[in-house]
Design goal:
The protein is an all-alpha fold and 70 residues long. The chain has one domain. 27% of the residues lie in helices and 0% in strands. The chain has 2 helices and no strands. The longest helix is centred in the middle third of the chain and has 15 residues. It is flat, with a radius of gyration of 15 Å. It starts with 30 loop residues before the first helix and ends with a helix. The model has no long low-confidence stretch (mean pLDDT 80).
Length: 70
């Protein structure tokens, strides 16, 4: 499968295939990383506003359906 670290992707075959504490290039980022990023933005950058132009759908394409995304 093209991504890892999801409940439907199974356990890694060996330790080298795990994503680690902060995630991995092949994975959606872990909640811990997302919360850390938001904390940094809120406390250090202190923006006046935020425009979200990102990809909000998970990358587990092989298990996605139109109905589940809607």
């Amino acid at each position: 499968m093209p991504v890892c670290c999801r409940s439907d992707s199974g356990l890694p075959l060996n330790k080298a295939e795990t994503s680690g504490k902060w995630g991995d290039y092949s994975c959606d980022i872990p909640v811990k990383t997302l919360k850390s990023m938001f904390k940094y933005i809120r406390e250090d950058i202190v923006p006046d506003f935020i425009l979200w132009g990102g990809d909000s759908v998970p990358h587990n394409l092989e298990t996605q359906t139109f109905e589940s995304n809607v």
